[in-house]
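Retry 2 of 3 after timeout on previous attempt. Resubmitting structure tokens to design endpoint.
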């Protein structure tokens, strides 16, 4: 079971759009809400760009001046963080095909057991095994480096600080996780941030016992279930505050 909070991402962006529309008389500019499919495979952000996402004649979507994005994380709900520069890692996935050879159990020396071969490849625990045929290695997906533009992030940090006070940090740790968000902003300045989704009471209790690493489920865990509030309100407000920071006020 895959749990990564995308229901929270969709809901919060829809609500942020509604919030921005409700105060439309107070700002000028164009806001595009982008709901990207297939983020986990690192595929469809680039596919959307390749399909002409920013070609106004094809999809009537103007090329943005800035691209903003966020993710719910196993942090204390109510808190938001980001950082200038590198924020997340790049990643490349491969499919590796190992080639065995069948035979009879009474003559194992004439066979190549693919199970043992795979274990040897991964764990390096079976020395001396002969690999009669090199494995086939194929790239299946890739994620660009997640890099926050310094000037954009500085402006957003001020907006976040004004909205969230000491619950916002501009010094988030660099994540070893990857996002294909960067494919949407190859030549456009961008900023990505995280916000917490763990019930504050649960977080405080676990933290008091020194068990955060052991008991707080991470994203993709079947037990990762962001609490609706204050997570949703924080996600909405973060989208709205960061967007309004770039729209010229009337």
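Retry 2 succeeded. Sequence:
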């Amino acid at each position: 079971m895959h749990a990564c909070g995308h229901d929270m991402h969709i809901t919060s962006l829809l609500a942020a759009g509604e919030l921005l529309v409700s105060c439309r008389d107070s700002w000028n500019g164009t806001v595009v809400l982008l709901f990207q499919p297939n983020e986990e495979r690192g595929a469809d952000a680039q596919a959307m760009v390749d399909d002409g996402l920013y070609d106004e004649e094809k999809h009537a979507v103007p090329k943005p001046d800035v691209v903003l994005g966020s993710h719910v994380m196993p942090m204390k709900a109510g808190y938001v963080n980001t950082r200038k520069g590198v924020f997340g890692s790049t990643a490349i996935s491969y499919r590796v095909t190992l080639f065995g050879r069948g035979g009879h159990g009474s003559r194992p020396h004439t066979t190549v057991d693919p199970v043992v071969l795979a274990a040897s490849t991964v764990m390096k625990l079976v020395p001396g095994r002969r690999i009669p045929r090199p494995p086939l290695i194929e790239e299946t997906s890739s994620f660009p480096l997640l890099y926050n533009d310094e000037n954009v992030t500085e402006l957003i940090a001020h907006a976040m600080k004004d909205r969230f006070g000491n619950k916002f940090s501009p010094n988030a740790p660099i994540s070893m996780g990857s996002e294909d968000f960067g494919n949407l902003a190859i030549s456009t300045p961008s900023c990505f941030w995280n916000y917490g989704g763990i019930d504050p009471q649960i977080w405080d209790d676990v933290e008091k016992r020194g068990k955060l690493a052991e008991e707080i489920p991470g994203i993709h865990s079947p037990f990762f279930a962001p609490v609706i509030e204050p997570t949703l309100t924080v996600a909405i407000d973060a989208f709205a505050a960061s967007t309004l920071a770039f729209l010229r006020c009337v």
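Attempt log closed. Residues 92 and 159 are 34 Å apart (CA to CA).
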